[in-house]
Specification:
The complex is a heterodimer. By secondary structure, chain A is α/β, with parallel strands linked by helices. Chain A contains 17 helices and 22 strands. Chain A folds into 2 domains: 4-238, P-loop containing nucleotide triphosphate hydrolases (Rossmann fold), CATH 3.40.50.300; 257-494, P-loop containing nucleotide triphosphate hydrolases (Rossmann fold). The model of chain A has no long low-confidence stretch (mean pLDDT 85). The longest helix of chain B is centred in the middle third of the chain and has 28 residues, at 111-138. Chain B has a two-stranded antiparallel ribbon. Classes of the chains: A alpha/beta, B mainly alpha.
Chain lengths: 500, 340
């Protein structure tokens, strides 16, 4: 018998229909992938399952019994736990306090039994072979990847029968992502149902037994994983055949140097980096995660202190803070790693997010020109094809891909022509990914200079003109032309070779 | 099929295992830097005070200063809970005023009547606080605005009950503040009780949930926390402690005052901030707040023994507040760079 059966599920937010007709069934002991573009309704679907929001219509049966959780607690009581993409962790609590939050073992005084909690934490981490974590470290001191791992531990701590993993691999480096895929199979083998959401087809292929495809708030198809081809899946996701994910790469780089960096160091993770980024070029930054890529981007943007020289369009500059980095056509703009935390104000409208850092461009004699602003916003929304009801829609209610487009728009409106893109496609659906790559090549053709980091290696291989591979805070190699390959990047990232 | 697929996948195990780590002393020191700074500040002030005045390092002095600081300490205890929740409670000013005027008009020489009224004041404090919490949650209003409004309302009610300072407090109630047990007066015992309370409270699920809601409300909600209930308890406790502050305050003044409460609103926040409690929620301990309350109280003593105008006291308080905030922010930066 199916463990979960969903029929005709619907949910609307005001005038926006997030889910119109979702159908879903899954058995215990399987890994069930949920596929669909951003905005297809996957997030709403799992939010309903996990008790974060309540559905308007349709029915859910769990174990053949009606299921309508009033809140996340009620969902957990029925054995359903979610590992949210939008993390449900508390920054000021420690790793172990987060894992056991509201389920802490207690003493007779009603206080948390720390010894017992530590023991249970280590047992849990041991049982599922977790990557190393310090249980007593405060969460806000952890990297994004480590937080994701804690979130997974928190989900498992409830010993759920149904575990929902919402793009849990997207924040993880390769080795941890592999670990999670293995773990997912292990959980299914233990007789649990794992509902797995990922935009990486290879992962879905590696672990899913069955898959359900969503489009525009409704279920379009469900398949056994080995009975359907990648092309069919993608066609069903986007409702048409996607010609190609990666745009044609026509070299557009000129001899003009847009950004030259010499002897550039920041903290202990970035030491003495030299490189030059040319006008019209997409320069990839690769390597294993945590080898100085983040520090490079942050320091270039002025968000971290750095030593060394930086030249923009031939002029030496010193970038002390992001405000200085942003200014004008000769500036630098960044698409940050954590779009929810650093890039977007979720409770502000699309318009406000777009124009926040460029408010000066719409002022005349010190007053804000609404007309100028709304023209500019409309132009950007059209150009990037941002799917929002109106520019006044709150950014937090957009799908992940559209949020990322808003950040791109915000960046383009600064008029800066040196763009720093830090993992711009993380958690973005296939269709939007293609649009972003095309956009990058178009911008390069217009003379923009783009520094591009991605945690997904094929993206670097197919989109960048050159790829710098970082290792231990240095540039281990710079690959060009036919030397750009996943193998080449990995070799440079992992082996002790000299820079080419 | 699962077996082959799993075998196909990279089988590299994680290299390092999570082990029971030792205590990260440096990390802890950095985390508690604001508190340590507050301790240093208090030590400095006590040292200066002690060099100017004889008899500072005696039990008598401790008893006196604790009595002088206890009203603020009680008010600041409630404020600390609210600040850790990520809110602020201005209404404690109104509650303290209201508490003193009810006490001054209702307390009698009959202990049982007085005890009943004292309990009623405490219950009223909790109730009004809980109402604050409900309004904040249900109407989705800013804590600042809601508590500003209730402060005004409570103030008005206090004025209606007792328009000017006056009334009377039975002497046996006043005597409570100087009662001694094993060489220490009751305020010192109350101080210890407050610390004990916090040691217990912040380790309970309720305490952790309040802290978590202040640290990241959305995450707390997604973890199953009822934000309405959290606000109800948080502001309820704040009102309860404000009522307690009123009951203690009348032992010092011997009368009721419909306007006295406002003198404790901002100092209660200042004491907490000096002690390292974050205004953004999620961080802070009562021990710091109590040190902060001592610092603010002793500045008054210091100004007195230096024979300068008492107007210098708020100036000095402000400077110390700024220094504390600066110290916390430096410590926070140091802690952050340590991670990267």
């Amino acid at each position: 018998m199916d463990l979960v059966t969903v029929k005709g599920l619907s949910k609307r937010y005001g005038g926006i229909v997030a889910l119109s007709d979702a159908t879903f069934s899954a058995r215990a002991g399987e890994v069930h992938a949920l596929l669909g573009e951003n905005g297809a309704g996957k997030s709403t679907f799992i939010q309903i399952l996990s008790g974060a929001v309540r559905h308007d219509g349709g029915s859910i049966l769990v174990d053949g019994q009606d299921y309508r959780p009033a809140n996340p607690d009620a969902a957990q009581a029925r054995g359903i736990a979610a590992v949210f993409q939008e993390l449900s962790l508390i920054p000021d609590l420690s790793v172990e306090q987060n894992i056991w939050f509201r389920h802490e073992p207690r003493t007779w005084l009603g206080t948390v039994n720390r010894g017992e909690m530590r023991r249970k934490t280590l047992a849990l981490l041991e049982k599922y072979n977790f990557p190393a974590l310090r249980p007593d470290r405060e969460l806000r001191r952890l990297t994004l990847a480590e937080r994701q791992i804690v979130e997974i531990a928190k989900g498992l701590a409830k010993d759920p029968r149904i575990l929902i993993l919402d793009e849990a691999t997207s924040a993880l480096p390769a080795r941890e992502a592999d670990w999670l895929l293995k773990l997912t199979r292990q959980l299914a083998a233990e007789g649990r149902l794992v509902i797995f959401i990922s935009h990486r087809m290879a992962e879905v292929r590696a672990i899913a037994d069955r898959l359900t495809i969503f489009r525009n708030g409704a279920t379009v198809a469900a398949h056994d994983a080995n009975a359907v081809s990648d092309n069919e899946i993608v066609a069903q996701m986007i409702g048409r055949h996607l010609d190609r994910l990666y745009p044609e790469r026509v070299p557009t780089a000129t001899d003009r140097i847009a950004l030259r960096v010499n002897n550039f160091s920041s903290g202990s993770r970035l030491s003495a980096v030299d490189f030059a980024l040319r006008e019209g070029e997409v320069l990839g930054v690769g390597g294993l995660q945590g080898h100085g890529q983040r520090e490079l981007f942050q320091a270039l943007f002025g968000a971290a202190r750095a030593a060394g020289t930086v030249e923009l369009w031939g002029k030496p500059v010193s970038i002390g803070n992001p405000r200085q980095a942003l200014i004008g056509r000769d500036g630098i703009a960044l698409v940050p790693e954590d779009r929810r935390g650093q890039g977007l104000l979720l409770t502000k409208s699309v318009r406000e997010n777009l124009t926040l850092s460029v408010i000066n461009r719409f002022t005349e004699n010190g007053l804000l020109s609404r007309q100028k602003e709304s023209d500019m916003v409309k132009e950007m929304v059209d150009f990037l094809r941002i799917k929002a009801g109106t520019p006044e829609q709150l950014a937090g209610t957009l799908s992940g891909g559209n949020q990322q487009k808003v950040i791109f728009g915000k960046m383009l409106l600064t008029q800066a022509r040196v763009l720093l893109l830090y993992d711009p496609t993380r958690g973005v659906d296939v269709g939007t990914k293609g649009e972003i790559f095309q956009l990058m090549r178009d911008l390069a053709a217009k003379g923009y200079a783009i520094l591009f980091h991605s945690s997904d290696m094929p993206e670097l291989v197919h989109v960048a003109d050159r790829v710098m591979v970082m290792r231990n805070g240095r540039i281990a190699a710079t690959l060009e032309g036919e030397h750009i390959s996943e193998e080449g990047i990995l070799r440079a990232a992992m082996l002790e070779t000299r820079a080419a | 099929m699962t077996v082959e697929r799993t075998a196909e996948m990279a089988q590299r195990p994680a290299e390092v295992k999570s082990v029971n780590p030792g205590i990260d002393w440096r990390g802890r020191a950095l985390d508690r830097a604001p508190f340590l700074v507050a301790c240093l500040m208090l030590a400095l002030i006590v040292a200066i005070y002690g060099s100017l005045q004889s008899g500072v390092f005696t039990l008598d002095e401790l008893n006196l200063d604790t009595a002088a600081a206890m009203t603020l300490m009680l008010a600041a205890t409630g404020q600390t809970i609210v600040l850790v929740r990520g809110g602020i409670d201005l209404s404690i000013g109104g509650m303290i005023s209201l508490g003193t005027v009810i006490a001054a008009t209702r307390f009698t020489d009959d202990p049982s009547t007085t005890a009943l009224w004292a309990l009623a004041i405490l219950a009223l404090g909790f109730g009004i606080g809980a109402l604050n919490g409900l309004l904040i949650s249900l109407l989705k209003l800013q804590p600042f605005l809601v508590t500003l409004a209730t402060w005004s309302i409570l103030n008005g009610v206090a004025m209606i009950i007792l328009p000017t300072d006056g009334g009377s407090i039975p002497s046996w109630w006043v005597g409570f503040a100087s009662a001694q047990f094993i060489g220490l007066t009751s305020p010192v015992w109350m101080l210890l009780a407050l610390l004990l309370f916090w040691w217990w409270f912040h380790a309970t699920r309720v305490g952790i949930t309040i802290q978590a809601s202040g640290s990241n409300e959305k995450s707390a909600f997604l973890s199953g926390v009822s934000i309405t209930r959290v606000n109800l308890v948080t502001y309820g406790l704040s009102g309860l402690f404000a009522a307690g502050a009123a009951l203690f305050l009348v032992t010092q003044t011997g009368a009721g005052s419909p306007t006295i409460g406002k003198d404790y609103i901002l100092p209660s926040v200042a004491a907490a901030v000096i002690g390292g409690v974050s205004l953004f929620g999620g961080r802070g301990h009562l021990a710091g707040t109590l040190i902060g309350a001592f610092v603010l109280t002793l500045i008054g003593n210091l100004v007195f023994v230096l024979h300068v105008s008492s107007y210098w006291q708020p100036v000095a308080s402000g400077v110390i507040l700024l220094l504390s905030v600066l110290a916390s922010s430096i410590a926070e930066k140091a802690a952050r760079s340590r991670v990267q």
